[in-house]
Amino acid sequence: MNQPTVVDLRHVSKSYSSGSKTTEVLQNLSLAILRGEFVTVVGASGCGKSTLLQLIAGLEQPSSGTIDTKAKIAFMFQDANLLPWLTVRQNISLALRLAGVAKTDWAVRVQELIDKVRLTGWEEARPHELSGGMRHRVALARCLAQGAEIVLMDEPLGALDAMTRDHLHEEIERISREAQLTVVFVTHNMREAVRLGDRVILMASAPGRILHEEKVALVRPRVMDSPEVASLAAKLTGLLKAAGSYEKN
Amino acid sequence: MKRTKSKTTLSGVWQVLWPKLLAIVIVVLIWEGVYWLGLRPSFVLPSPGETFRTLVAELATPRLWSAMATTLGRAIVGFSIAAVIGTALGLAVSSWRTLRLAVGSLITGLQTMPSIAWFPFAILLFGLSEQAIFFVIVLGATPSIANGLISGIDHVPPAYRKLGQVLGARGFALYRHIIFPASLPAYVSGLTQGWAFAWRSLMAGELLVIIASKPSLGETLEFARQFSNAPLLLATMIVILILGMLVDGLFSMLARQVRRRRGLLAE
Ligand SMILES: Nc1ncnc2c1ncn2[C@@H]1O[C@H](COP(=O)(O)OP(=O)(O)OP(=O)(O)O)[C@@H](O)[C@H]1O
Ligand SMILES: [Mg+2]
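YS: structure for the whole thing
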């Protein structure tokens, strides 16, 4: 893949200080992401994955180092972050509207997105009437509605059943190919990371840093429970465990 | 997705209504008892029956109705002016640091000032006129409205601001789509409190600033006192109480509506 770099992090560190105590969350992290690449990020809880995405999105500023992004960024929050006073439809169409999509196209686009995330029939529901997984799917639809080239997703499918998840894997894969999106996808699930990623980034914790990068050469379409995916996932999990920074799965 | 109402309308209304009716019955009984003891002569403290007969009789003539119209009209105009000024002030203070440092605590201070204390000054400025009344209503209600909006904006969850940033909402769009709706519950409670202040200021004003050509509820009270017309006095007070409660009911309906839409209401 001979593509230009669209996200370039150089020697990025991030610390939070509360009172006299300063904790270094990310330490000297460098990462270049190419246009159209699908990067998945795996690491133990608290290792700084969400912080990394927020830095890329410009929602937080690095304590040192530089971050260079070359295109518009869409963001999907770990906690969905839907606006409680808007319906499902309105939450999604707000993203279209603020992205400058013509008003005449909203209705059709919103319906397409809602169908894609399998929430047909829930258009007029409000966030508090949805389950956790449904809220994440609305957030996913809203994220895709932003029409950005770079899409950052923070554990979008964590709370879903296997069938919906498989369906959404296919959708996300297809949409990202068709629109040539650059995706950074954070997950706890190693098989999911291998299933989706062109490249899997393993993060170590305290302080957060890149432990290992793995180019995934398996042919697509991939199946999450196939032996190839499973064995690569097992190998990568082994690496995380050996570094002492993976308790889960 | 249709939520079924937990109560049918009629029995629901009854459930809300009967404690209120019972309270009214108890108050009337106590009133009747005090009257019956004869602690005060009946031209000072009339019986409930006589008061209600006066009320009904007055409602059959245009006088009380036109007094109500004048008073409510003043309340609405004064409150609307206060809402516009309070909203502008709240927006300005919450978005401009220097202004907040300058007048932030003054706004809260003004809220503690009993509005009746403004009247001598207002009368000096505007004479015995409607302007004097509006002046005091606006001064009474504006701080609450501004403060409600300021605290609403201050407490917009940072996550919503981040979302606004991600979606590319800037300037007016950020206020319109994120900040203003997020602060709506606090703003509505500021408006509710502002209304209560406006209504009180208005009543004080109408007792002090009597404009002969314009009968109002405050003026009716004053007139009834001067002519020792105790039944009319009490009947007017009942009207004032009911009007106040009705408007307050409207505001709490609005507040409930806002909270229900956000799933903040335990049903
Ligand atoms: N605003 C903040 N102030 C102080 N510390 C913070 C802040 N945000 C995150 N942290 C700390 O940074 C570390 C990394 O947090 P982050 O949310 O990036 O982890 P994560 O890898 O996304 O975890 P999870 O998988 O559980 O979502 C945590 O130890 C957390 O306590
Ligand atoms: Mg996280």
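YS: worth flagging: The longest helix of chain B spans residues 62-95.
IM: good catch. Also Chain B has one domain: 67-261.
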